[in-house]
Design goal:
The chain is α+β, with helices and mostly antiparallel strands. It has five helices and seven strands. The chain has two domains: 2-48, no CATH class; 55-188, Umud Fragment, subunit A (Ribbon), CATH 2.10.109.10. Mean pLDDT is 82; it is low at 199-205. The chain has helices spanning 2-21, 26-52, 72-84, 90-94, 187-203; strands at 58-60, 107-111, 123-126, 134-144, 147-153, 169-170, 174-182. Strands 1-2-7-3-4-5-6 form a seven-stranded antiparallel β-sheet.
Length: 205
């Protein structure tokens, strides 16, 4: 009897394995998507967050505010005038990490940010009045009454975005510092969110 139960269990597990990994049906694809979301959200994301010391270890870039449409020299010719008001020279900007920005659809790996060590040129993630955090570059940093404050700007923006209150970002709003860029991988999340919004729009009228 035990042997029969054991064989039945093996058959069931083989069918499940085949369904998940080899079946090309729409249901198999949907199960794979759900498993991937669960794996990333509840295992990979928390483990990375613990290792990197932040609640936002991975950020998908969903806007073009940090994109560079041209090479560095052309970028500076078009945008450099703004940075001169903050005493940032072309040479300064060239030495910054991610000096060529990054694109919508990129994934950024984020680490814990020590406010005392953040500098002009660093790219940070900060909480804004909007639901999603913002990832922009520091153009001014200062200390006031024992607290650290920052002004940021998206490289591709014409100026400071007052809607996200980035002219005076208190250290408590800083969620992390960008360390690594992984091109285009964020389109997986963007595509999935767009798909969910499309489904939601279909049913909610």
């Amino acid at each position: 009897m035990k042997e029969i139960k054991k064989n039945n269990f093996k058959k069931i597990m083989k069918k499940i394995w085949y369904f998940i990994w080899e079946d090309n049906s729409i249901w198999s694809w949907l199960v794979n998507i759900i498993l991937a979301v669960v794996l990333i959200k509840y295992i990979i994301y928390p483990v990375l967050g613990l290792a990197l010391g932040t609640g936002f270890p991975i950020v998908a870039v969903v806007s073009g505010s940090m994109e560079h449409e041209y090479d560095f020299d052309q970028f500076w010719e078009e945008k450099g005038g703004f940075y001169s008001h903050y005493n940032i020279t072309k040479e300064d900007f060239y030495s910054f990490r991610f000096r060529n920005g990054f694109n919508r659809g990129d994934i950024m790996i984020i680490s814990r940010a020590n406010p005392e060590k953040l500098e002009v040129g660093d790219v940070i993630v900060f909480q804004s009045p909007k639901p999603d955090p913002i990832i922009h570059r520091i153009i001014k940093a200062w200390e006031e009454d024992g607290k650290y404050y920052f002004t940021t700007k998206g490289d591709n923006n014409a100026g400071i975005n007052m809607e996200v209150e980035e002219s005076r970002i208190g250290q408590e709003r800083v969620l992390g510092k960008a360390q690594v860029r992984i091109p285009y991988l964020g389109y997986v999340k963007i595509g999935f969110v767009d798909f969910l919004n499309m489904v939601k729009g279909f049913f909610v009228r």
